[in-house]
Amino acid sequence: MDRNIFEPEHDQFRDMVRGFLLKEAVPHTAAWEESGMVDRTFWHTAAGQGLVGFAAPEEFGGAGLRDFRFNAVLNEEVVRTGTVGDGFSLTNDIVLPYLLELGTEFQKQRWVPDVTSGAKTIAIAMTEPGTGSDLRAIKTTARRVGVDWVLDGSKTFITSGIQAEIVIVAARIPDEDGGGFGLFVVEEGQTGFERGRKLDKIGRRAQDTAELFFRGVTVPMAHVLGEPGKGLHYMMANLAQERLSMAVVAVASAEKALELAVDYAKERKAFGRTIGSFQANRFTLAELHTKVGIARVYVDRCINAHVTGTLSPAEAAGAKFWTTELEFEALDTCLQIHGGYGYMEEYEVARRWRDARVQRIYGGTNEIMREIVGRSMGL
Fold first, then answer.
1. Which of 52, 88, 116, 87 is nearest to 207 (CA)?
2. What is the rounded average pLDDT of the residues 293-309?
3. Maximum Cα–Cα distance for the chain, whole Å?
4. How far apart are CA 367 and CA 365, in angstroms?
5. Whole-angstrom Cα distance, residue 222 to residue 185?
6. Helix or strand holding residue 376 (H, E)
7. 358 — phi, psi (to 5°)?
8. Phi, psi at residue 194, to the nearest 5°?
């Protein structure tokens, strides 16, 4: 079924992105997986192509493209080409919007040009040991000391935590300082800011993920994003785009899984026939093909709604949980179609299968997503 949400400029952008990734990213996949992080040289090159922070105004080094369809195109091509790492979606879809929407002129001038040029990378530190998807359980504190704030606490599972030079930290503000939560920007090299382990994950091995520690880190008032006390509201508002981004990735991943399975089923023979000619496999792939097509239509509709400002948090949550469940079903089916070869690291499906598993966990577990949808129904 033809897609109708893109304009010619999006198609041109897709061609450019695909060519760039095939040349500059795909050949390095194995090396990045082995080293446990994407090389910074690639990030500088990608920024030079305008793929990092393109939503930022031109005065800050961006292209002023605040149209999520460009984000969707980039995310889809990252998946389809097999490019490893979460840097693009993390920067463009999740973290940079906080700086663009909440940042003062001073803050934008200080941080955004370094992001769009690839000189510095950014991360957001929400998750803590023991909190998981429950943001209200954050224990990291920000106490007012004179005109500054002082952070104390720890974070875990922080994407780009090893390499990021700019980290937005979510912290609880004690009642004596106004209560609520705040967002505080911490820069590399600040006293008391320490990085812990680079975590050893099952999948997404090329994406560095780390523990972060804040021991009496002084944050000047000029480095507080938005109003202290409204941090939870800001985070909840931005989570809709984060979850839509994950749904975009999930559908593209499911489509690629189906493509791999069909190609293999047409070539692999058993008992003198291609395995795709067996009714069990043919029916399995036919059902998966239909499910993925339905997901594509729904997510495209969500993208359009987000562009027009009408996508609700509950709709984004629903898209996230349904598509990421389908993504893993598709990849598990694809691996099964490959048989024993699917369990071998030399086959692309093996990496894609283990990389997909976390999609049902991060960005809010799928159980939490169902809770959000249920509550939106008045239940």
1. 87
2. 97
3. 79
4. 5
5. 9
6. helix 366-376
7. -70, -20
8. -130, 145
- Whether residue 303 has pLDDT greater than 80: yes
Record the tokens describing residue 328, joined without a space.
Answer: 């893993």
Candidates 122, 211, 212; CA nearest to 163 is 122
Proportion of the chain in helix, strand, coil states, percent, rounded to 5? 55, 15, 25
Length in residues, the chain: 379
Inter-residue contact 115 to 122 (CB < 8 Å)? yes
What's CA 339's distance to the chain center, in Å? 30
Cβ–Cβ < 8 Å for 50, 3: no
DSSP per-residue string spanning 13-68: HHHHHHHHHHHHTGGGHHHHHHHTS--HHHHHHHHHTT-SSTTS-GGGTS-----H
pLDDT at 261 (0 to 100)? 95
Positions marked catalytic: 242
Residues 6+ apart with CB under 8 A from 366: 320, 321, 324, 325, 360
Output the pLDDT for position 225.
Answer: 98
pLDDT tens digits along 19-51: 999 999 999 999 999 999 999 999 999 999 999
216: left (phi over 0), alpha (psi -120 to 50) or beta: left
Q: What is the pLDDT of residues 275-293, one digit of tens each?
A: 999 999 999 999 999 999 9
Whether the model clears a pTM of 0.90, i.e. scores above it, the answer is yes
Residues 107-119 have a mean pLDDT of 98
Q: Cα(295)–Cα(319) distance, rounded to whole angstroms?
A: 8
Calculate the CA dihedral of residues 246, 236, 98, 40 and round it to 10 degrees. -30
**How would you class 84 by CB atoms within 10 Å of its CB: exposed for 0-12, middle for 13-18, buried for 19 or more?**
buried
Whether residue 124 contacts residue 135, with contact meaning beta carbons closer than 8 Å, is answered with: no
